[in-house]
């Protein structure tokens, strides 16, 4: 849970909040995410997700593309002594991470957004309409 604003330094290093490091540990996985952000998983949660991807039917083209997107776009990272990770260049480019970023806790994962994309996404969101749609998926408040 929670949201933190941070910056990526010129060398591509990103500070991970201590609250998140407590859950993630010293090594975890960063992957391409949906909507132009990155997903961050603790190793244990990544293995669960990876198993779900492996269980998809190989003969289904969309299933192969879905698995390919996440698995080829994932990399392990290690926290340094200052609590930072080196964000891989290809993942920074995918998510448009240049300087100001948002880290948002999403339950079993953390999303990393460029601040501009985060603000644009949230300014266009109609949460009331989304909440009505969630009722169709069994989500109630």
- Largest sheet, spatial ordering of strands: 1-7-8-4-3-5
Distance between the termini: 18 Å
Low-confidence residue ranges: none
Radius of gyration: 16 Å
> From the helix content, strand content and strand pairing, which structural class follows?
alpha+beta
Helix content: 25-40%
Strand content bin: 25-35%
Q: What characteristic shape results from the CA principal axes?
A: globular
What's the average pLDDT?
A: 92
Number of strands: 8
How would you portray this structure in words?
The protein is an alpha+beta fold and 141 residues long. It has six helices and eight strands. The strands form two sheets. Strands 1-7-8-4-3-5 form a six-stranded antiparallel sheet. A two-stranded antiparallel ribbon has the order 2-6. Strand 7 and strand 8 (110-114) form a beta hairpin. The longest helix is centred in the middle third of the chain and has 12 residues, at 43-54. The protein is globular, with a radius of gyration of 16 Å.
């Amino acid at each position: 849970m929670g949201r933190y604003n941070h910056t990526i330094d010129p060398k591509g290093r990103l500070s991970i909040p201590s609250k998140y490091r407590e859950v993630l540990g010293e090594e975890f996985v960063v992957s391409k995410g949906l909507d132009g952000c990155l997903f961050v998983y603790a190793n244990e949660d990544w293995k669960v997700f990876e198993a779900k991807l492996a269980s998809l039917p190989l003969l289904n083209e969309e299933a192969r593309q879905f698995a390919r997107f996440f698995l080829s776009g994932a990399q392990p990272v290690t926290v340094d002594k200052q609590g930072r990770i080196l964000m891989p260049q290809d993942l920074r480019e995918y998510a448009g991470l240049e300087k100001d970023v948002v880290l948002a806790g999403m339950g079993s994962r953390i999303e990393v957004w460029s601040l501009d994309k985060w603000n644009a996404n949230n300014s266009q969101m109609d949460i009331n309409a989304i909440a009505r749609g969630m009722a169709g998926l069994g989500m109630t408040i």
